[in-house]
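ok trying this again, last paste got cut off
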Amino acid sequence: MDGSRNPDNDKTSFWKKNSKTVPGRPSPKKDVKSSVKPKVVGTTSFQDFQASVSDAWAMDDDDFCIISGLESTKISKKVSQSAALNVLNSHRNSTDIPVTSNDKLESVSALEVDFVRNNRIPGRPQQLRCFNPPQDEDSESKLERFESVLANPPSLPELCKLSWSGIPVKVRAITWRLLSGYLPINLERRNGVLERKRQDYWNLVEKYYYAEHDETNRDIQHQINIDVPRMNPSIPLFQQKTVQIMFERILFIWSIRHPASGYVQGINDLVTPFYVVFLQEFILDNQAFETFHVDKLSEEQLKIIEADSFWCLSKFLDGIQDNYVFAQVGIQRKVHQLEELIKRVDETLHRHLKQHNVSYLQFSFRWLNNLLTRELPLRCTIRLWDTYLAESDCFASFQLYVCASFLLYWKDDLMRQNDFQGLLLLLQNLPTQSWSSSQISMLVAEAYKLKVMFADAPNHLQSNTGDS
């Protein structure tokens, strides 16, 4: 389980040797011209924005500064200034006021003060020190209902209805496999399907991961090798080398099987919920997954976790594939839809954002690209995905309502911010570190209300060119 090819021997900087960038993935070596180009509104500005803020808070830059009073948090001077100046220039462009060198110092200083005051890592919810999850008061009765449904071939609608409000840890793994469409409903077919699919995954690993890679695949693997060590930096589980190698294989094989998109930065975050859920099958109930050492597991158990994470990720992303193709047109469309929805639901908040020149793209791109995994603690993400998987084919549209509800949740805090920089700092570093399943339950309930409210008014998702 610990074998891997490491393309880091190539000393040439990955980003410098690629002259033509594509949002969120390694850039091609040659300028490939297509005879048919998709017509996407705002593609150029979207690509410029995405390229300028992609993974702004990298952990492997050479030139770091340590924020005073927060010694464990390292921020690249070059990258933090670039990210701050990018959004500030976007704001000041409307009045054609250039940012001077003094502006740079003032902007970065303001950012540092905010981070110190809130004591959190930029762009990530700070994990709680106590990793023990709160006990759900009705977990025993809910577990009994799940066990009763799962004892026989369950009706998928019945299982979705039961799962929508949350799934007990003990039965979450099998329920997620069923809801993903990875595990058959038919009891007699399950063992055979699992055995075959798991072997299929390891055949793919042997055929592609350990094979000699061409230039494109070397670039893909190199970018994966950069991204994986940076995910969930506050959770010890994901700093283990065995875990990182497993993620590298999953992501590389996924990119090989999805050539229309290839590897897109952010997909690594989408593996983590599946990985944790399938890991929890093999650890004791009273053990926190955050600090569990996976080397305690057998090789067979690790193979099961990895293969099942890969197949369920693949099934899950099938419904939002256009989020990760060239120019990420699916996300662009959803950003416009989110703006249109908020304009109709809460014109006061929408006008407040617009008056301070806050673009929805500046904060909601990450929400949609990473499905809120970077905005929420991991346990909350897993609870949210109970509902996402229960939504089945409607997940892609329901995600939009969740993002809208998430934005509306912070309305009072946002309305108290009276400048562009304050709004962006809050939107990009929302204080969710103390959230639990109760907040997620409220969030999805509000999202459901929005979904029902606009179920018969699909035109609310039509983007118009007017600015309000």
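PB: full thing came through this time. The longest helix spans residues 187-209.
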